[in-house]
Amino acid sequence: MNTNLGLIGKKLGNTQIFNTDGTVARVTAIQVGPCVVLGKRTLDKDGYSAVILGFGEKREKLVTKAEAGFFKKAGQPAARTVRELRLPPEAVAKYEVGQTLKPSEHFTEGQKVDVCGITRGRGFTGVMRRWNFRGAGKDTHGTHEYKRHGGSVGTNMTPGRTLANLKMPGQYGNERVTTLNLVVAKVLDEEGIVLIMGGVPGSKNGIVTVRGAVKVKTAKA
User: Fold this and answer.
1) What is 1-32+102-140+169-216's CATH number, 3.40.630.10, 3.40.50.300, 2.40.30.10, 2.40.50.100?
2) pTM for the complete prediction?
């Protein structure tokens, strides 16, 4: 489990920046601010420790009574996205309800981060697009109408049934995916934007969570 603090953001799109040595870096722009602390979870009261963050604004018409009571208790306007981030108890104690978090306080250039988001939904797709199958059979020997099929999925007498978890056509995309160990190219604190090298999950204007990397490789001594 990732217990590093992060921020909620919106994927703005892709662009490129020029490094000091003249090379070009392809980056993804993520608006990660402002994020507001809406609440905290503690070991004594809740059995675990976490920080509740809010991002964006939500129209009053769309807020339920339960949500309205939660935001009123926090003394903050309704947030569009609310997420809990598990943190150690000593880290949770550093933050207060109503505090606004800035990108520069949590991210630095060259830092490795994990970005989690919902991938683009692609609907019902075949095995070649969904699982990168190469296609079945050859174009000769009378084969037809099977160029993009997945091939045989059956078994013999034992067990005499199609096994579970075989790669077949079906729903592709629209799932929660985390991309690990991406590098922060630049932090634009005034604009509340973080530029991350490479691509991140999700479509434009999709909501993502950016947290410190949990599987960073350390150099051997």
Assistant:
1) 2.40.30.10
2) 0.85
